[in-house]
Amino acid sequence: MQFIDLNRQYDRIKSEIDGRIQSVIDRKSFIMGPEVTELEEKLAKKVGRKYCLGCSSGTDALVIPLMAFKLNKNDAVFVSSFTFFASAEAINTAGGTPVFIDSDETYNMDPQKLEEAIIKTLSEGKLKPRGIVPVDIFGLPADFDKILKIAKKYNLFVLEDAAQGFGGKLNEKWDGSFGDVSATSFFPAKPLGCYGDGGAIFTDNDQLYELMKSIRVHGQGTDRYDNVRMGVNGRLDTIQAAVLLAKLEIFDDEMIKKAKIAAKYTELLKDTFKTPIIPENCFSSYAQYTLQAESEEQRNEIVKRMKEFDIPVMIYYPVPMHMQTAYKYLGYSPVDLPVCESFSKKVFSIPMHAYLTDDEIQNISDKLKIICNK
Ligand SMILES: *Cc1c(COP(=O)(O)O)cnc(C)c1O
After folding, report:
1. What's 96-117 look like in SS3?
2. C-alpha 344: how far from its chain's center?
3. What is the pTM of this model?
4. When you count CB atoms within 10 A of the terminal residue's CB, does the N or C end of the chain come out lower?
5. Rg of the chain on CA atoms, in Å
6. By the 8 A CB rule, do 343 and 323 touch?
């Protein structure tokens, strides 16, 4: 069994994907071909943003807007600790300093702890609060109702890390539409994945769009060989855009299927584990279906026994960002962010994709219950 079964998806749309890739090869328009523009227009419309910029990865989709905000070392950017490394790393790459925020029970950034951290940073006076990077972890939108109010109160930019969130919704608005600018990833295992690295940036802001468009291609000015600022090589490949266009056709259907699968899992497993908490105004893209064991020992047992049953189980994330070796210099201790510290010891994710059968869902759930004697 596969954790995310890309074979079944490919079987479904093989001729569309193959045909679109072949036409890029026939034209040899590998860099910034028409598929990139077509995809950017379709994605902007879907997410409900004025602009979309295709990028070389989700990481670059975070770095480019952060470069546009012109950070320096004394600029604090508040980011979830319970996330993938890139959410925080991008802040350093762009020259700033991350300040880590603990989670609430949804795994997302706790807005109350965010405000406490802003107040603490202001009173310490060493760093200057500049922005917030809320992450839509596991596909659930962060609490933007509260976070956007806090951002306004303290005059901070908001960069939504929607790398896992594409397809998620809050108050009927799509992930990728919150804050000044949003980043998503098309890494193959993400809700909308390509066949390599890829990502996209979304914004409604004209100036920010022009700036990011320039940074995406080496800080290019109006003329191709006139470079007016420092940038990166952050373009999306045409072949990846072609794959994404084919996959976009079935994306909404896949989201509906995943929501049904998640509901089945929750029904079968809610008496055995803490199942995902999805607030009423939210729709999750279920980048991961994540459960919480009672203890670290129970999780170890689950990981070991599920392996014997040949069912893949993954741990996202065993080490929160404030405890990463690369962030030792910031001087955090585990007790500083106790909620995500506890998550990191207890969470595990089980197979989740649109092509899981009822039998597979039942089997995975049964095996988990056997392991926990329930
Ligand atoms: C995957 C991911 C990224 C980085 O995306 P890449 O395309 O792998 O560079 C950033 N943030 C989060 C939350 C992610 O899950």
Report:
1. CEEEEECECCCCCECHHHHHHH
2. 17
3. 0.98
4. C
5. 21
6. no
Pocket of ligand 1 (CB under 6 A): 57-59, 83-84, 86-87, 135, 161, 163-164, 185, 187, 197, 199
Residue written as token pair 């012109």: 70
d(CA 126, CA 237): 41
Return d(Cα 233, Cα 216) in angstroms, integer. 6
User: How would residue 334 be classed by pLDDT, with cut points 50, 70 and 90?
Assistant: confident
- Name the residue of 185, 195, 236, 288 whose CB sits within 8 Å of the most ligand 1 atoms, as the mutation to test its pocket: 185
pLDDT single digits (tens) 171-214: 999 999 999 999 999 999 999 999 999 999 999 999 999 999 99
Query: DSSP letters of 149-190?
Result: HHHHHTT-EEEEE-TTTTT-EETTEETT-SSSEEEEE--TTS
Give, rounded to a whole angstrom, the gap between the first and last alpha carbons of the chain: 23
Give 57's DSSP letter: -
Question: Cα–Cα distance between 134 and 360 in angstroms, integer?
Answer: 34
361's tokens: 């869902």
Residue 34, classified by CB atoms within 10 Å of its CB into exposed (0-12), middle (13-18) or buried (19+), is middle
